[in-house]
C-alpha cells in the first residue's frame, strides 16, 4: 500500500545498496494472498532456492552501525536488539508502482533499487546523497552549498526545474525553477527507493530521468522502544567532528495510537583553509534535524498519519585547490569610476562569503481507507524552505542569493486490492508552488573596502498544476503481464519581477511586469513483463517524461529587447522517451543474484543555458529549448553469498551520453558528453560477519567509482577527474549495543568532483571529497 509500513508486509534488507533482491512469494503482493492461484504457488516456491543467499545478505544488513540483529520490516521497533543467531529472513518490498499493495522487489518489472533504513545505518551512511551512489547510474554534484543536482543514467540539468523527482513520503520536494535537491540525514528511515528512467506517469513532471523516494518509518503500536548513536571523527589535516542521533517509539493508546520521534545533530569536520586570512579548517558544517510522526489506526479499515520534519543546516561550499585551500580575494572598486582600483590591495574573502544557510519545514497528513477491493487515500502536504547563499568567486564582487519557497500538494488516489488478473491505480494531484528569489552583488569601494550592495534581481515565480493519472496491469497468462499507464497535466506558470530598477525598465519598454504561460502535457508508459520460471523475470518498457519550461528574467528580456535579439518569455517543456529491456534472476541455488537493464533515451528541446553577445560586447545569458541528446547503456547489479559469513556485491552503470547537434550559444559541439553526465559509475561492497567469542565481529569495505563529468559555457568547459572513494567499518556488537571504528576516503582521494563552468571560468576551484576521516561510533537500543 501507499501506507509504506503496513504490518502485513514482510521485509528483507539486502546487503548492497546497489540492489535489494526479493523472494517473490506470490503473484499478488504478500498482503493480498487470498487464494492459491497457479502463479502465486509458483512464486512462493522461489523462497526455497534463495535461502542461502538471503541468509548471508540479511547478516550483512545487520552487520555494522545498526544495533539491530535482523533486517527490519515496516513495523520494526525503534531499537530492536542484535541477535547472534540466524538472521530473520524478510522480503524486500517497494511501493514504487503505487498500487494497492507493495510488491516484492524481485517481482517488480522496473529498474528500481531499495535501501532499507537498517542497511543505511549498518553501513554508516549519514547522507542521502552518499546513499544514492549505491544505486546504478546515480550521481550528484554539489551546487554551491544549498543542495545537489542529482543525475540518473546521465539525465541531468543546470537550469529550470529538477530532472529527477525527489519525494519525502508523499510530498514532492519540488521547487519551481530550481534543480537542486536537499541532502538529508537518513537516520531512522524506513527506506530509500530509486526508480531509474522516466517516471512521468505515476510521479509526473520533473521525473524525466527517474525518481528518488525517501520514506520515513511509521510508529509501531503497543511498543515502547528507542535507539541512539554517538560518533566522533577526525579528518586528516583537518578538524574533528561529532554526530548524535536518536529515535523513540511511544505507544499512546493500545492498538490505536502511537508516535515516533527522531532527532539528529551533526557537526562535520572542517578541512579547507584560507591562508590569506590565516584561517584553518573553516568549513565545519552543522546540520540539525527533528522529525515526528503520529499514527492513528482506530480499526483495520482506517489509518491516519500526520508528520512534521524540520531541518536546519549551515553548509560551506566545498570548492578547494588540491592543497585544500581557498585563496579568493576581491579587487576594490573606485567609487568615482566604478571600475577596479589597482592602486589598493585586494580584499581577501572571508569564509562567510562561501556558505549557505538553509532551513526547511515539511508537514504531511495522510488518510487511508482499506476496503474489500479498493484502497482510498488522500495526502495533503506543505513545504516551506528558505535559503541564503553567498559566493566569493567573482573577482570584483561578492554575490548573495536568497530564496523563499512554498509548495502545497494534495493527492486523491484509488487503487485495487486483492487477487485477480487485473490491478490498477488512478489519482488526481494538485500542486501549487511559489518561489521568491533575490540576487545582490556587493562591491567593495576603495580605499577602505566599504561594502556597496546592489540588488540586481528579485522576482516571484509560481506554478499551479493539476494532473490526473492512471495505470493498469493485466495478467495475460501465468507468465505474461501487460501494463499501460498515462498522465495528463496542465501547468500554469507565472513570473513577476520585483526589483525596482527592472520593474521601471519593463514598464518604460511596455513589457508586462507579470508574464505567464500555460502548458498541457500527456505522458505514457507501456510495460510487458515475462516470468518464465521461479527464478527469473524479464521486462520491456517504453516510458515518457517531461519538464516544464522556466521563465527568463526581466533583466534578460530588457537587454535582449534593447539588442533586438529574441528570447522566449517562458521556455517550452522538454520531452524524453526511454526504451528499456531488463532482467532479474537467481543462479547457483540462490547464491548468485543478478539484475541488468539495457536502456536508451532520446531527449528533445532540452532546456539549456545559452548566451549571446550584446550590442555593448558583453554576454547575456538566457534559457531556451535548444538541444537534442541521446543516452544509452546498461545497469548491472550482482550479489554473491556462496561463502559463509561473506557477501560480495557490485552495481554499476556503463553508458554513453552525448549531444546530437552543435550549440555554439552554449559552447557545445555535436558529440560532446552530455552536461554533468558520467559515462561510468560503479560501487563494490564486501562484508564479512564472524562470531568472536560472545560477540559478533563485523568488517565492511566499499569502493565507489565516478567517471569524469563536463559542464559548458561559451568558449569554456570544465571537466572533473575520475575518482574512487573507499570507505570501511570494523567493529563488534552484542545484543543491544555495537562499537565500530569507521573510515571515510581511506585512500585520500583528492581528485576533482567537478564544478559548474560558470564558476570555474572565474577561477572557482573544483569540488573535492573530504580527506581521509577516521572515527568511532557507538550504538545503543532498548525495547
Structure description:
The N terminus is likely disordered. Helices cover 7% and strands 50% of the residues. The longest helix is centred in the first third of the chain and has 11 residues. With 783 residues, the chain is mainly beta. The relative contact order is 0.14. It is globular and about 75 Å long. It has a 22-stranded antiparallel beta barrel. A five-stranded mixed sheet has the order 3-8-9-6-7. A two-stranded antiparallel sheet has the order 1-2.
How much helix, percentage-wise, in residues? under 10%
Strand content: over 45%
Question: Largest sheet, if any?
Answer: 22 strands, antiparallel, barrel
Stretches where pLDDT is under 50 for at least 5 consecutive residues are 1-77, 79-91
SS summary, helix count: 7
Which terms would index this structure?
single chain, 783 residues, 22-stranded antiparallel β-barrel, 5-stranded mixed sheet, globular, disordered N terminus
Amino acid at each position: 500500500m501507499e501506507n509504506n509500513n503496513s504490518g502485513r508486509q514482510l521485509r528483507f534488507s539486502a546487503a548492497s545498496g546497489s540492489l535489494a533482491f526479493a523472494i517473490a512469494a506470490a503473484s499478488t503482493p504478500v498482503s493480498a494472498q487470498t487464494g492459491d492461484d497457479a502463479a502465486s504457488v509458483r512464486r512462493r516456491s522461489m523462497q526455497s532456492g534463495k535461502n542461502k543467499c538471503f541468509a548471508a545478505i540479511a547478516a550483512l544488513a545487520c552487520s555494522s552501525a545498526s544495533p539491530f540483529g535482523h533486517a527490519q520490516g515496516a513495523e520494526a521497533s525503534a531499537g530492536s536488539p542484535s541477535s547472534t543467531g540466524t538472521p530473520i529472513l524478510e522480503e524486500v518490498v517497494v511501493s514504487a508502482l503505487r498500487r494497492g499493495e507493495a510488491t516484492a522487489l524481485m517481482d517488480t518489472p522496473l529498474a528500481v533499487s531499495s535501501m532499507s533504513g537498517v542497511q543505511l545505518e549498518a553501513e554508516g551512511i549519514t547522507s542521502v546523497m552518499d546513499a544514492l551512489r549505491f544505486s546504478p547510474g546515480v550521481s550528484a554534484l554539489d551546487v554551491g552549498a544549498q543542495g545537489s543536482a542529482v543525475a540518473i543514467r546521465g539525465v541531468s540539468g543546470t537550469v529550470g526545474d529538477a530532472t529527477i523527482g525527489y519525494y519525502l513520503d508523499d510530498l514532492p520536494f519540488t521547487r519551481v525553477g530550481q534543480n537542486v535537491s536537499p541532502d538529508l540525514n537518513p537516520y531512522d528511515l524506513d527506506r530509500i527507493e530509486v526508480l531509474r528512467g522516466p517516471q512521468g506517469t505515476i510521479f509526473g513532471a520533473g521525473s524525466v530521468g527517474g525518481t528518488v523516494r525517501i520514506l520515513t518509518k511509521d510508529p509501531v503500536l503497543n511498543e515502547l522502544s528507542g535507539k541512539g548513536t554517538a560518533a566522533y571523527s577526525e579528518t586528516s589535516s583537518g578538524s574533528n567532528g561529532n554526530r548524535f542521533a536518536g529515535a523513540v517509539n511511544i505507544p499512546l493508546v493500545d492498538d490505536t495510537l502511537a508516535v515516533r520521534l527522531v532527532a539528529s545533530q551533526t557537526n562535520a569536520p572542517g578541512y579547507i583553509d584560507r591562508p590569506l586570512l590565516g584561517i584553518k579548517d573553516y568549513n565545519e558544517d552543522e546540520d540539525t534535524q527533528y522529525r515526528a510522526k503520529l499514527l492513528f489506526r482506530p480499526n483495520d479499515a482506517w489509518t491516519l498519519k500526520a508528520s512534521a520534519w524540520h531541518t536546519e543546516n549551515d553548509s560551506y561550499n566545498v570548492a578547494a585547490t588540491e592543497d585544500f585551500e581557498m585563496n579568493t580575494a576581491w579587487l576594490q572598486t573606485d567609487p568615482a569610476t566604478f571600475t577596479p582600483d589597482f592602486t589598493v590591495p585586494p580584499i581577501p574573502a572571508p569564509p562567510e562569503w562561501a556558505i549557505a544557510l538553509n532551513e526547511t519545514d515539511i508537514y504531511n497528513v495522510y488518510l487511508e481507507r482499506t476496503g474489500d477491493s479498493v484502497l482510498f487515500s488522500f495526502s495533503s502536504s506543505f513545504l516551506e524552505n528558505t535559503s541564503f547563499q553567498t559566493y566569493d568567486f567573482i573577482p570584483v564582487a561578492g554575490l548573495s542569493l536568497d530564496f523563499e519557497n512554498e509548495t502545497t500538494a494534495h493527492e486523491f488516489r484509488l487503487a485495487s486490492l486483492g487477487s485477480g488478473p487485473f490491478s490498477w491505480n488512478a489519482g488526481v494531484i494538485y500542486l501549487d508552488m511559489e518561489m521568491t528569489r533575490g540576487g545582490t552583488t556587493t562591491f567593495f569601494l576603495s580605499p577602505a573596502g566599504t561594502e556597496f550592495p546592489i540588488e540586481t534581481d528579485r522576482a516571484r515565480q509560481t506554478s499551479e498544476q493539476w494532473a490526473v493519472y492512471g495505470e493498469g496491469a493485466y495478467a495475460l497468462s501465468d507468465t505474461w503481464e501487460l501494463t499501460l499507464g498515462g498522465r495528463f497535466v496542465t501547468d500554469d506558470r507565472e513570473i513577476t519581477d520585483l526589483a525596482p530598477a527592472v520593474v521601471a525598465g519593463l514598464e518604460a519598454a511596455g513589457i508586462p511586469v507579470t508574464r505567464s504561460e500555460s502548458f498541457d502535457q500527456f505522458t505514457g508508459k507501456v510495460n510487458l513483463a515475462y516470468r518464465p520460471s521461479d527464478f527469473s523475470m524479464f521486462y520491456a518498457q517504453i516510458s515518457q517524461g517531461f519538464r516544464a519550461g522556466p521563465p527568463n528574467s526581466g533583466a534578460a528580456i530588457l537587454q535582449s529587447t534593447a539588442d533586438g535579439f529574441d528570447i522566449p518569455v517562458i521556455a517550452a517543456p522538454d520531452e524524453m522517451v526511454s526504451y528499456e529491456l531488463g532482467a532479474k534472476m537467481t543462479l547457483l541455488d540462490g547464491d548468485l543474484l543478478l539484475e541488468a537493464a539495457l536502456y536508451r533515451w532520446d531527449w528533445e528541446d532540452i532546456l539549456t543555458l545559452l548566451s549571446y553577445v550584446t550590442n555593448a560586447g558583453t554576454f547575456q545569458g538566457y534559457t531556451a529549448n535548444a538541444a537534442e541528446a541521446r543516452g544509452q547503456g546498461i545497469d548491472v547489479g550482482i550479489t554473491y553469498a556462496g561463502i559463509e559469513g561473506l557477501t560480495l556485491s557490485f552495481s554499476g552503470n556503463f553508458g554513453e551520453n552525448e549531444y546530437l547537434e552543435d550549440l555554439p550559444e552554449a559552447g557545445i559541439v555535436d558529440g560532446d558528453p552530455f552536461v554533468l553526465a558520467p559515462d561510468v559509475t560503479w560501487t563494490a561492497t564486501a562484508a564479512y560477519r564472524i562470531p568472536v567469542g560472545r560477540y559478533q565481529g563485523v568488517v565492511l569495505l566499499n569502493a565507489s567509482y565516478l567517471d569524469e563529468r563536463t559542464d559548458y559555457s561559451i568558449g569554456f568547459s570544465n571537466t572533473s577527474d575520475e575518482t574512487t572513494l573507499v570507505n570501511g567499518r570494523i567493529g563488534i556488537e552484542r545484543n543491544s549495543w555495537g562499537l565500530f571504528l569507521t573510515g571515510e576516503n581511506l585512500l585520500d582521494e583528492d581528485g576533482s568532483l567537478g564544478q559548474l563552468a560558470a564558476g570555474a571560468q572565474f577561477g572557482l576551484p573544483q569540488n573535492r571529497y573530504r580527506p581521509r576521516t577516521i572515527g568511532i561510533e557507538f550504538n545503543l537500543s532498548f525495547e
